[in-house]
Design goal:
Helix content is 2%, strand content 71%. With 238 residues, it is mostly beta strands. The longest helix has 5 residues. This is TonB-dependent receptor-like beta-barrel domain-containing protein. Its main location: membrane.
Length: 238
């Protein structure tokens, strides 16, 4: 049986000179959690894993007169098939909770500049909700001993996943306006004036990962590839 606690504090404290610059929030975010996990072997080649996690977060921005807190309980379960010591096939279900970071909640100021034509600036969003997700994943792990000689090992990992996320936190560019650049009217175009973080009510993420690790004596080499496709379920847009 495995159990424990973890946590961190995210603090935002800065200053800017000049009366025309936006005030930087003085914010503190506390995040902590407690978790437990138990593995139950049965039928010789099967193993059941059960787990649970409790998360709590609280955030406060003094000069914005803003404070919030939230919490969640997240269960998990997995079943693994181990036909031999080299192969493991796992199907798992996990729920997860992610609190918005201080950057996502309170960032202000210039994001990037267009030069004399203007700049894109951040709009803070202290009302961001935490992400809550339900994840299904299928994993295969295979190990080959003495693959090319007597002292090497090859580890192969493959997985596919399907995630349903409520209140997915997305960074977007907004408020597009036409800006005439100094290079001439032929370069007139619409540019985003602001950048902000927002919640997507219901998001879906699907993808896969492949990885191979080769070990020989004191040498190690690894190659991996992953792909994720995400969409807003309400609009069907990426």
């Amino acid at each position: 049986m495995l159990y424990g606690v973890d946590g961190y504090q995210d603090k935002l404290d800065a200053s800017r000179s000049g009366p025309s610059r936006p005030i930087v929030p003085e914010a503190t975010t506390d995040v902590w959690g407690a978790f437990t996990e138990v593995q139950i072997p049965f039928a010789d080649i099967l193993r059941l894993e059960l787990g649970a996690r409790y998360d709590y977060f609280a955030t406060e921005a003094d000069n914005l007169n803003n404070d919030r807190s939230d919490n969640a309980f997240s269960p998990s379960a997995a079943i693994s098939w181990l036909p031999n010591e080299d192969l493991q096939v796992t199907l798992r279900y996990d729920e997860a909770f992610r609190a918005p970071s201080a950057e996502e909640l309170y960032t202000t100021g210039t994001h990037y500049s267009y030069g004399p034509a203007g700049a894109n600036t951040f709009i803070n969003n202290p009302n961001l909700k935490p992400e809550e997700s339900q994840n299904i994943e299928f994993l295969v792990d295979y190990q080959m001993q003495n693959a090319f000689n007597e002292k090497d090992t090859v580890n192969i990992h493959a997985s596919v996943f399907h995630n349903e996320v409520n209140n997915f936190i997305e960074q977007i560019a907004t408020n597009y306006q036409q800006i005439m650049l100094i290079y001439g009217p032929q370069f007139d175009d619409y540019y985003p004036v602001n950048t902000e973080y927002r919640n997507v009510d219901k998001a879906q993420l699907v993808g896969f990962e492949l990885a191979m690790d080769y070990q020989w004596q004191n040498w190690n080499a690894m190659v991996s590839y992953g792909q994720t496709r995400a969409k807003n379920k309400n609009t069907a847009k990426p």
